[in-house]
Automatic annotation (TrEMBL), chain A:
It comes from Denitromonas iodatirespirans. GO terms for cellular component: membrane. Belongs to the complex I 75 kDa subunit family. GO terms for biological process: ATP synthesis coupled electron transport. InterPro entries: 2Fe-2S_ferredoxin-like_sf, 2Fe-2S_ferredoxin-type, NAD-red_Hydgase_HoxS_gsu, NADH_UbQ_OxRdtase_75kDa_su_CS, NADH_UbQ_OxRdtase_Gsu_4Fe4S-bd. Residues 78-117 form the 4Fe-4S His(Cys)3-ligated-type domain. Coiled coil: none annotated. Residues 2-78 form the 2Fe-2S ferredoxin-type domain. This is (2Fe-2S)-binding protein. PROSITE patterns: 2FE2S_FER_2 (PS51085), 4FE4S_HC3 (PS51839), COMPLEX1_75K_2 (PS00642). Its cofactor is [4Fe-4S] cluster. Keywords: 4Fe-4S, Iron, Iron-sulfur, Metal-binding.
UniProtKB/TrEMBL annotation, chain B:
InterPro entries: Hydrogenase_assoc-protein, NADH_UbQ_OxRdtase-like_20kDa, NiFe_Hase_small_N_sf. It comes from the Bacteria. Keywords: 3Fe-4S, Iron, Iron-sulfur, Metal-binding, Oxidoreductase. This is NADP oxidoreductase. GO terms for molecular function: 3 iron, 4 sulfur cluster binding; oxidoreductase activity. The lineage of its organism: Bacteria, Pseudomonadati, Pseudomonadota, Betaproteobacteria, Rhodocyclales.
Length: 238, 191
């Protein structure tokens, strides 16, 4: 009857056999930071924000199965410092000029930085130069904000059945591309109703003509921090 | 400052700290936000003396306890001023988004600076005979806009575009009291 348990920051968390640390933690109401993980998809393991320490090793909580009796450290100065550095790397890799970004206040990357008290990107900026794709009548793409979580790629392939997006290139030259001969979004069957149009955690995929519609103070992460918003809604709320 | 020198310091009063402020490739919005501390300006002036600042008439930065730097680095004069601030200020603070990551002015980084100048000064309608200003008195723009931490070491970063008056006051209060300032929710904003 009793389920196996592991310790997450000293608190017993029950889990089902085969369940990952991140999922078991969520089910028990314990938040572990994540950007590329999404409940509708298998683990991706690219953002590394869900890093936790198990038996002296740093592992991705989204892809590491829970084990009975394991001692997992997540919300510690050491692990949070590593997460902050990963965030800083993401910030200097792109052009994250929040003051002019339509996603500001609704952006998971930004909200994560607030949660982890990141005050500076610290490293040298790359300032990438990737042209905006405004060809589609309903949706705009700003590739300079992409964090390569592949959620749009996965959503378009697995849920919309369209395979509109792909990651291409290697190393620092990796970037998001549109799967059309012309490379333009307008030349795909992409629609603003697609799952892929709504899944971007940052400000890459934006609906046209609705920018800055939510007043400051009422945006998602103005109202509540990411570690609250990212948790599953309890049945009382539904 | 001169008032204090005339009247002398009360024996019990702690010595005032010196603060310098500057706007490099900034919009002066962070300075406006500094003034948004409203009546706390009087509290602040009880505890600090202003050195070089857009609010004073001093031309160069003398030895200071705290330097507040608004704006990124976009031209050669910015580099000289920033280095002077670093040399003179014990604690240097990057104030606002521009000083921290270049800010919106850094959106010119994907453009060629020469073409930017000719687009504005030469090829605009109605400016047919104009040329790009070339007097040596004018500082040359750098090819890219940089955050200040790419030029000098920075001790603290206070994000925001601009940081709110509340955030600046909380930050300065901590610094003046000798506490390590903590920039956390709800004063931590990038926009």
């Amino acid at each position: 009857m009793s389920r196996p348990e592991f310790l997450l920051d000293g608190v017993a968390v029950p889990f089902d056999e085969g369940q990952m640390i991140l999922e078991a933690g969520r089910a028990a109401g314990r938040y572990i930071p994540h950007l590329c993980w999404h409940p509708d998809f298998p683990p991706h393991g690219s953002c590394k924000l869900c890093v936790v320490k198990v038996a002296g090793r740093h592992v991705s909580a989204c892809a590491t199965p829970a084990r009975a009796g394991a001692e997992v450290e997540s919300d510690t100065p050491e692990i949070n410092a590593e997460r902050r550095m990963l965030l800083q790397l993401l910030f200097v890799e792109g052009n994250h000029f929040c003051p002019a970004c339509e996603k500001s206040g609704q952006c998971q990357l930004q909200a994560m930085a607030y949660d982890l008290e990141m005050t500076t990107p610290r490293f040298r900026h790359f300032y990438p130069d990737r042209p905006v794709d405004a060809s589609h009548p309903e949706v705009l793409l700003d590739f300079n904000r992409c964090i390569y979580c592949e959620l749009c790629v996965r959503a378009s392939r697995e849920q919309d059945g369209k395979s509109v997006f792909a990651l291409t290139g290697r190393g620092i030259h990796k970037h998001l591309a549109v799967n059309a001969e012309s490379g333009r979004l307008a030349d795909t069957d992409f629609s603003a109703d697609d799952k892929a149009a709504h899944i971007c955690p940052v400000g890459v995929i934006l609906k046209k003509r609705v920018g800055f519609a939510v007043p400051i103070g009422e945006r998602t992460y103005d109202r509540a921090p990411l570690h609250t918003v990212a948790m599953p809604k309890s049945e009382d709320d539904a | 400052m001169s008032r204090q020198r005339q009247e002398g310091c009360p024996v019990s009063a702690p010595p005032k700290l010196r603060i310098a402020t500057v706007s490099l490739a900034g919009c002066f919005g962070c300075h406006m936000s500094l003034l948004d501390i409203d009546e706390h300006v009087f509290d602040l002036l009880q505890r600090v003396e202003l050195d070089r600042s857009p609010l004073t008439d001093l031309k160069h930065c003398g030895p200071c306890d705290i330097g507040l730097v608004e704006g990124g680095v976009c031209n050669s004069e910015n580099v000289h001023v920033l280095r002077e601030f670093r040399a003179q200020c014990k604690t240097l603070v990057a104030l606002g988004a521009c000083a921290i990551n270049g800010g919106l002015p850094a959106q010119r980084n994907h453009l060629d600076v020469g073409r930017c100048l000719s687009a504005v000064f030469q090829s605009r309608p109605g400016m047919d005979t104009a040329e790009v200003p070339d007097d040596p008195e004018l500082p040359l723009p750098l090819d890219k806009v940089h955050p200040i931490h790419e030029v000098v070491r920075v001790d603290y970063f206070l994000p925001g575009c601009p940081p709110s008056g509340e955030a600046i006051w909380q930050f300065l209060s901590d610094l003046l009291a000798g506490r390590t300032p903590r920039v956390a929710y709800p004063i931590l904003h990038f926009d």
